Amino acid sequence: MLDLKKANVRWDRENYVPKKVSGTLSKVLSGTPQKMARSFLKQSSAALKLSAPLRDLQYEKTTESLGSRAVLLQQHYRRIPIHGAWVAVHIDKQNRVFLVKNDTIPLDLLDKKLGGKRPKFLAARTIDGIIKKRAREHGTLSTKIDKERMIYARKGSLLWAWKAKFGTKDPAGSWVLFIDRATGHIIEERFVLRKTIGKGVVYLNRKWQPNFLSFPEVLSP
Known about the structure:
By secondary structure, the chain is an alpha+beta fold. The protein folds into 2 domains: about 5-110, 2-Layer Sandwich (TATA-Binding Protein), CATH 3.30.310; about 115-220, Roll (Nuclear Transport Factor 2, Chain: A), CATH 3.10.450.
């Protein structure tokens, strides 16, 4: 059982829930990283003040580093993912939880803001038209539009939204839009194509004569 008195805790002062908890947080666990994370959360949900039912925390992925694994679970509400609402459970090589990050939204707040009758949503083709118009303002659409329903939970807002991703050329770009499903208003827009300058080594022959060249590299997450 997790004891916050024996851990380092950073609190969310607005909702008074632990946002980040670190230390030796569990005994040695067994199973897959996902199974260990869920077992830990089941035993520690009260201490962590998780208001989201565990069934609403959907497994997203496991990332690995040299010394640990991080299991990411995204919060859903009425089966729709909530943007930015995650629980990350970090497990060391001895299969002990040593860090938990909690960015979930309190369920009572979700019910208050979104639990009533849903507004009338714009048709999907209308939303597609808004996205294509925005793409033309940035360049020429070069990829298909990937779109998913999302609850937008940033900057004090809780809105039913679409999350759209697409790429452009002339100029090259990669974009993420969050669009209000009821009004078509673009809530947030991100340019997610990153560019960097690097150096490479070209071996001209077997005499091992390196030729250093600078080159631009385009990174797209």
